[in-house]
Please model this.
Amino acid sequence: MKYLIVGLGNPGEKYVLTRHNVGFMVLDELAKKYETSFQPEKLAEKAEIKYKGRVIHLIKPSTFMNLSGKAVNYWLQQLKISPQNLLVIVDDIALPHAKLRLRPKGSAGGHNGLSDIEQVLGNANYARLRFGVGSDFAKGQQADYVLSNFEEAQKPELDDAITKSVEMTLSYCSIGIERTMTQYND
Model:
């Protein structure tokens, strides 16, 4: 069985620790746990792990957040993976900092990365792990907020949530979305 796990973020050093790149952070931790590394490939940096008889392909799109759909669609086609085995890990300002929510499908909720994936795939029928980054910003400052780094005081909770996200991702690939949601969603 094959899975495609997509962490959303923006490529480049200046975005590495920003709230918008939390999807990349989760995949980096997953790759580190399995002692693999990402290699530049078409439209993404890609890594692969094996877990409980499954092959899990990890991609970090190199297309920038708002154009993520092109990379997602390419790798689904290239690897012949059904959207039923797609999980997208994304930052979410509607959730408090470090709060996690796994869903089998849903709306983009104003997130441009998810909107682009929906547009390219033609539907929103894919799993997503929403990673709360909070909404501590003034009206009209959303872009600046998500493109800024986490605060030092947030790092312990951030690290715990990244670790939990890795567990949830592996659980999704091994026992499925319904059982994983039951086990992890609050």
Summary: The first helix runs from residue 22 to 33. The two ends are 28 Å apart (CA to CA). The chain has a mean pLDDT of 96. The chain has one domain: 2-184.
